[in-house]
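ok so for the tutorial part 2 we go from a plain amino acid sequence to predicted structure tokens. step 1 is just haveing the sequence, like this:
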Amino acid sequence: MLFYSQNTDMWIERSRLVGMLLGCATYGIFFLLTVQSCLALMRRPRHGGKIANNRPALVFYVIITFVLRTLSISANAKYTEMIWIDLRNAPGGPLALIEDEMAYRINILALSAGHIQEWMMQGLLLHRCFAIWNWEKYVTIPMITLYLSMIGLSVYIQVEASTGIPFYDINIEPAYLGIQVGLNVIYTILVAYRLLNMRRKMKELVGQYDSRLYDTLVLIIVESVMAYTIFAIVFIVAFAMHLNGITTICFLSIGQVQGIAQLIIIIRVATGRAYADGYWSTRPAGVPTTVAFAGTALEAEEELTDDPIARL
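step 2 — the prediction. this is what the tokens look like for a chain of 312 residues:
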């Protein structure tokens, strides 16, 4: 069998196809988790108690981020179709269309929808972190500064892209991704430290206190953030080293991976699967204890466990 091909970089073309397939697969997972999240948030807490007031806001967040990601993946899918079908006879062939994708408005739509989704996802992380830290200024001010810097770079990237510059030549992209990864890492460290510190204080005050709830909450936060962080680091390194094939593959999936990571946290906490196995069956009955952390009284145990999604 004979194979005929133009003298072009076939790896870039293959990476676009592979990236789109991977993007569709991760979008399918993202869609299923979105449905599960909405169902979990609209049900009553597994172990009784009132539905937290912020659950409708979380449902709204889940729906909006899903709509934005759907716009982005749909636009990318349409342009992939255009590359090999609608515009297959364009000068330079598929390779030129892939490299100059920002010259087409449909890709600006995909990029902008993806960036706005990322703003919302990072905003949710910040809200969780600030709530756990009781809105301490030494935590909120640096984190908000980083967040606003990320949005500023995002707007700059979208403006640059709208001029038709090749995506691979937007040199500020690694800085934007670096701030995103930095926010995720800092969020994980701050939340894990705060929860573990609360666990230590509870054990000092209540000798028989079962601390497995705090342990498992820390574990699911670390597990969920880790996947996105590794994926984003690969993206940053590939972009910085001008490995355009790997960059293309990561670019078409990174939004879904980030969304999946956050939905996993929402589902596990909302459904009660954040608790260690046997937590509720082996947890000894005790009198609710009011403990002061940073000047704020937290109803230890009862308030946290009635509906933990209220805090996470």
